[in-house]
Amino acid sequence: MPTTLLAQVDSSIGGKTAVNSPRGKNLIGTFYQPKHVLVDVEVLATLPDVEFRAGMAEVIKYGAIRDVAFFEFLEKHVSDISARNTDVLEQVIFRSCANKAQVVMADEREQGQRALLNFGHTLGHAFETLGEYAGLRHGEAIAMGMVFASWLACTLGFCDDSVESRLAALFDAFGLPTRPPECTPKECLNIMALDKKVRRGKVRFVLLEALGRAFLHPLSLEAIEPSLAEFLSVRC
């Protein structure tokens, strides 16, 4: 029975159970599917604003990686969602759950497509780890990670600048941070090297070719460093 927006749309679905460690986030865990997940939208009326905003990061993620129509719906309904209009929230939560469930059913143990759900998480988890899991909420960290991932995709020529600007604008509209905490590229890269998506020294980075279309692209940490340094410099 998830009682936060983030849990209702993300962590209660898919069976991942994990704990954090000093070396990184979600590196220790297993898969254990629940028999039922019961979501009551009305409990969100008591959720602190900062927790509600953090949950919206995962909601926006679904639109960004696989459902552009949903992304556009979110852009048009910022006021209703922020006001926690129950009818609109039901649509938001149902659409988010449907998107995640479809991915999980196709790839329960993250051998391929499910890794796309980690959009923004590679750098976002690094921010969380650097803050010792106390400085940032998960949704805040991955919002900044998604902005970087879209920045990186634009830098590499996979998408145009409007992808990053629309994504950042939607995060801004919901009060989510788009500027990273103070840190160095080396600090982030040292943690990113332990990411579960690392294969043979390369990170399978989740990038966008357009809003609603994500893909995995192997990149060495050395290849990521110049863009990360620029991102941290410009955004900070």
Low-confidence stretches: none
The first-level CATH class name = Mainly Alpha
Main sheet overview: 3 strands, antiparallel
Whole-number mean pLDDT: 93
Radius of gyration in whole Å, from Cα?
17 Å
User: From the 3D coordinates, which CATH architecture would you assign?
Assistant: Up-down Bundle
Count of separate DSSP helical elements: 10
Number of structural domains:
1
Estimated helix fraction: 40-55%
The tally of strands reads 5
Give me some keywords for this one.
alpha+beta; 53% helix; two-stranded antiparallel ribbon; 236 residues; Dehydroquinate synthase-like, alpha domain; 5 strands; 10 helices
Any overview of this molecule?
By secondary structure, the protein is an alpha+beta fold. The protein has a single domain (5-235), classed as Dehydroquinate synthase-like - alpha domain (Dehydroquinate synthase-like, alpha domain). The chain is built from ten helices and five strands, in the order H-E-E-H-H-H-H-H-H-H-H-E-E-E-H. The protein has helices at residues 5-11, 49-66, 68-76, 78-82, 86-106, 121-130, 138-155, 161-173, 185-192, 221-235; strands at residues 16-21, 24-31, 198-199, 202-210, 213-220. The chain has a three-stranded antiparallel beta sheet with strand order 3-4-5. Strands 1-2 form a two-stranded antiparallel ribbon. Helix 2 (49-66) packs antiparallel against helix 3 (68-76). The longest helix is centred in the middle third of the chain and has 21 residues, at 86-106. The model has no long low-confidence stretch (mean pLDDT 93).
